[in-house]
Structure to design on (355 residues):
């Protein structure tokens, strides 16, 4: 784990920070391998550019020796005083984006001369570039997701409700020893135009309708995410045309991924295909998002993110066309940036499928 901390400290130095207070439990796990849900208690990791890092731990957490400087406290202690004693008021303090007001406001009141800034990027930039261990885990997470998606496609049937199919997917996750990383999305027909539709127990699948499934699971603390759209028994010409446009756009975006290419440039490649087809007004969201311990992490594959792709980054490519009152299509894969291009982490076929 030391190399991850060293990378974060390097990012701090680039940002001109000598101290960074990390409160996001997933970022703490990323840096130290130690995880706990703190609820209302103080669970912080103070990064210092001199290497004298400090863990703040409540005795309730039952965490053994961490290998770092530790401040352990009980619910009867004045935890804010313990925190203040470890912070240099003369230096700018970076705090992460999830720092709650319950801690930040009292800290600022106790240290009125302390300047605080958002310092999340110091860790988030590191989390965006996966190491070999993370890549291996995320590949396995996507393999499980592929397996369950293929089962779901075979299981779908006329008369089955959206919720029944979503529940089946979650049951299959459980059978594989994983859990969903977000609420499984299943939508039929015109409901597929709602990109975050909640599966309904009242909506039953009919012949000729599309089935859009957006799903992901957590394996060893890392997420997968994918979307497939297919059709029940038949598909009309208009829906088939829309599907092929999305498939072409999605593949063009995947093929554009390589080191040095900006996220905004990948988005532009995909946008051009859909715009040129005449369906541009029906795609109003970004192309993708970064992923790791959380389904959505820092990093957008969109027009306003000019971050260049780098080996180790993993993000989604998921264009869609959403026509309210008619239909929707989304195709989503996770891609890993390699030294000379990309690797698709999903293997479920993307050809137009009628089941």
């Amino acid at each position: 784990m030391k190399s991850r901390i060293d990378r974060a400290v390097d990012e701090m130095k680039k940002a001109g920070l000598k101290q960074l207070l990390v409160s996001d439990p997933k970022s703490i796990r990323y840096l130290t391998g130690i995880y706990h849900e703190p609820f209302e208690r103080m669970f912080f990791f103070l990064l210092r550019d001199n290497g004298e890092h400090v863990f703040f731990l409540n005795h309730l957490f039952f965490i053994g020796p961490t290998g770092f400087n530790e401040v352990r406290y009980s619910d009867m202690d004045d935890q804010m005083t313990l925190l203040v004693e470890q912070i240099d008021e003369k230096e700018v303090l970076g705090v992460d984006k999830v720092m709650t007001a319950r801690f930040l406001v009292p800290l600022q009141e106790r240290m009125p001369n302390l300047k605080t800034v958002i310092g999340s990027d110091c860790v988030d930039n590191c989390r965006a570039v996966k190491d070999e261990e993370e890549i291996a885990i995320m590949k396995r997470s996507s393999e499980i997701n592929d397996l369950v998606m293929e089962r779901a496609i075979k299981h779908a049937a006329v008369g089955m409700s959206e919720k029944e199919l979503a529940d089946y997917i979650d049951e299959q996750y459980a059978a594989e020893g994983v859990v969903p990383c977000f609420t499984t999305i299943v939508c039929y027909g015109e409901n597929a135009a709602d990109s975050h539709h909640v599966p309904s127990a009242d909506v039953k699948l009919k012949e000729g309708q599309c089935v859009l499934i957006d799903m992901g699971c957590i394996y060893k603390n890392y997420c997968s995410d994918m979307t497939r759209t297919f059709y029940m028994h038949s598909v009309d010409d208009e829906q088939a045309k829309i599907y092929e446009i999305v498939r072409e756009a999605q593949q063009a975006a995947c093929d554009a991924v390589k080191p040095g290419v900006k996220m905004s440039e990948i988005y532009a490649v995909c946008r051009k295909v859909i715009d040129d087809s005449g369906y541009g007004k029906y795609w109003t969201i970004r192309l993708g998002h970064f992923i790791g311990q959380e389904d959505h992490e820092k990093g957008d594959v969109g027009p306003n993110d000019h971050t260049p792709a780098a080996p180790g980054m993993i993000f989604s490519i998921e264009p869609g066309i959403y026509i309210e009152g008619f239909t929707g299509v989304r195709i989503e894969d996770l891609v890993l940036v390699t030294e000379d291009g990309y690797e698709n982490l999903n293997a479920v076929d993307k050809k137009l499928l009628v089941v």
Q: What stands out?
A: The chain has two domains: 2-127, 132-344. The longest strand covers residues 210-215. The longest helix spans residues 132-155. DSSP finds nine helices and 19 strands in the chain.
